[in-house]
Fold each of these.
Amino acid sequence: MGSRGMQRSWRCAVVMVALTVLGAGTDARARAQNPLVSALLEARDFRLRVQAAFAMGDSRDPAYRPPLERALRDADPAVRAAAATALGRLGDRRALPALAALVADSSAAVRLQVERSIATLEAVPASPAPGAEAAEPRVPWHRVRYVVIVGDVRDQSGDGLAPALLVQLGELLGRNVAQLRGVAVLAEEELRDGDTRREIARRRLPVLRLEGELRALTRAEHEGNVRLRVEVTVMLLSRQGALRSLMSAAATGAEPDRGADREQDERLASQALVAAVQSAMSRVLRALRSAGGTQ
């Protein structure tokens, strides 16, 4: 089986797990037998564990907080980073102590995701007291012009740093597009909600998918400096998968060379990825406007 076939295979396996989970009950026994939890804590392939963590975060279900906190102790840094990202997406402030325990993690990518999730959760208001005024709905529909689903992120580089960078790439896509005026970022599961579907239909909002690829990761040494160049492609698609726009960008991180220092490579790659994604995403709003009338 080729590399693309293998990627499709493990992604399909995670999708099957997630679909099974959506039909599960919320009682304690169902949670204990939840295949998504099993994938996160027991799957041998770290990529399955990463995708299980993402699915939990996208669910916005606080019941997934305990298994995600356990995954923060996973041996693979990509899984730890994915779990930290997912805890931030859940929005449950009770995860703060578990995240704080990882601020000195050995992986720079994990530390970055932990810091971002801590900042996200610290900004979440405490639960209102009984009888307090209800909070504003999560989606201010009167301001929304486009609905965006952040879909798959894929690796085409084949580099050893790629797993942790894929976790960061998915998080960066969601964060950058959510900052655009008039855009609501929703998970696939949220689109199954009846009220959400009615709002989208009533307002005739276009629904699009945003996906990303890590195209290349190149390391070079020159005059005592190490340089890491990251190339990414961001794709805007219809909800059915038809390509609407393709945006590519690259950026380079550089520092004095410390020799065979993986932490330095992780940090430079992470910095370059942030810059490359920001460059690619600077064209997304224009692409949304172009694609909005062609659903």
Amino acid sequence: FLVPSEQQGGQQVESLGVLFTSSLFADRAPDGKVLLRVLLGGYRQPTICELAEQDVLKTVKRDLEITLGITAQPEFVHDIRWPKGIAQYTLGHRDRVDDIMNRLPNDLYLTGNSYYGVSVNDTISQAKTLAEVLAGRLEHDITPSCSVN
């Protein structure tokens, strides 16, 4: 789930969202257990990455109690910090990207979450589209221009 921005900060929930990883991917947690991935920080709260691990864990535990009623102590904690993990689009982003794409040489292609969508699904969709373009270009390039008898 995602936490609405108006619910973040102050005495409210600090987390940006929670992924139920063991529900999404088989064998990510032992039977009877769950693996949750809690997302914090982002451009709204970049200083969270500067906190000590125990302070981050305290915040996560408080947020999980508020949002899901979880009071159990975690059996496993893995703290991963990606201060610039998700691209942040600013006003005018689409126009800048379109300008960059229009200036590229014909044999150079760009794709990824920093262009037309930050989600994994967006990135996969862009990659599929680019693969189709490249496959079509290759097919065109290898088509014989004349026949040999």
Amino acid sequence: MLVDSHCHLDHEALSGDLDGVVARARSAGIGAALTISTRLDRFPDVLAIAERYEDVWCSVGVHPHDTAAAEPAATARRLVDLCDHPKVVGVGETGLDYHYEHSPRDVQQRSFRAHIAAARETGLPVIVHSRNAEADTARILADEHGGGTFTGLLHCFSATRQLAEKALEIGFLISFSGIVTFKNADEVREAARIVPPDRLLVETDAPYLAPVPHRGKTNEPAYAVHTADKVAELKGMSGSELANATTRNFYDLFTKAEWPAR
């Protein structure tokens, strides 16, 4: 069994065939999936998907791209209140994206800190996006960790080994997506090699970043198996060892998520 620890099932590329997407994932051995919130005005749709399927969970949060539009509604208090639902198991995705800068950097940073505050209060893990913002991501995580512990992960890791090491220092997990299969992703593969097996997760970030051999197509949770195969190869693990480790890591981190009935 594998878990797709990060996907966007509310995205229009997937939402028109949700039953098919979920069925194909189950057939591929994906035992659970976490569908991610990126905007509070679309959170009801994300939550409805999680409620529809027993093996799908969700998060609540605002992607850094959308933080300017979300202010001042996306307060830590508002996030905490939305975390009360039993299907909400994580806070985010949040973080920093300086590649497109759809929202000002100071607004992104305030939102990031608000999400961390909500994660700290609820005890739920914070799901962190970081793109072209390695120094500020590391600085804010270290600063906030000094103010009180919280759990979380770096999702869709695409940074350097140095950020991976800083995240590991504060107890974070690191999740790898289909990027690890891409031809020019040597730095990501290097990071995957140094992450301990008990800190690893795999994801699709569907419908984005389809792994080889599906690159260029719409990604979906079933394709997590290809990412898992590559990570297992890099770690010198068997496929079953990698699946067992990452599944256990998911449920150890997302403690509100319930193991599937056996």
Amino acid sequence: MSRSPSPRSFRASAPVRLDFAGGWTDVAPFADREGGQVISAAITLRVTAEFEPGGVGLLLRAEDLGQAERVVGPAELSGGDGLPLHKAALRMFPAGPGTLRTRSQVPPGSGLGSSGALDVALVAVLAAARGEELSPDEIAALGYELEAREAGLPGGRQDQYSAALGGFNRLSFKGEVVGIEPLALDPEFQAELERRIVICYTGRSRVSGDTIARVMGAYHRGDSAVTGALRQLTDLAGEMAGALRAADLARVGRLLSSNWSAQQRLDGQMATPEMTVLEQALGAAGALGGKAAGAGAGGCMFFLAGDDADRVRAAARAAGATVLPAGWSSTGVELC
């Protein structure tokens, strides 16, 4: 990564992602015990963090959320309920007085991994402000530590690695070990895949720490339905990697839908009524398959259209969804 040209202002951005298969299997304790894998692709919607040194104390601003908080002393970085990732980042990377601003190009609770991209952008910008050079792998690992350990928010590791690395990747997880296998797709197929992918925002996700605790608690207790679904999700990730490499659009579509079916077996609240209506409408319009982005229970779904992608997009809007335009991002976290 290249450094910011200005010595008084630092800026970093990181992409959000689409998880084609295997989501949830990167979350402990399943990932620790059995190992999971996720097929993830970074997209051109990004999260940006900027740090401007100077002044007295710290001003924290999440501009897309309309939230701001002034911090006078270090003790205040551990208090209050607002902007927990900003505060956790500054506890990990004290950068002196200044203004820390962030902005996301995706709606809140989208399921597109925006908190993981925010983690990565925060680590990158504050490390740069401190004169530290980190590799993308290091930024991803520290981004996960920021969210899961420093901020105490439950979740897996896929979002931080996709945001840091960019591109299409097959990510494997076993305890603290993350395996990274870039997927080099046929260029014509990748372009056609981009033309046919339809990303639909259905409304803010209801998935919370309670949902994650409920799913992984069931796995910990040996619930056969949840355990079987998680194992199937791991297998589907391997199949999806093969379908993408083979440039098999029809198989990619079928696997998206199979992943969504397995995901819904994890928890009874995984599919909202809006998501069910959208899935039915886009299937009738010619979609080859689709799934929730990320954890589910609202947020975004994405679909692989048949030959008439415009018809599928029109059906999504008619069903009440907001269609988010985006392409593939070959770049991960960047200082700019």
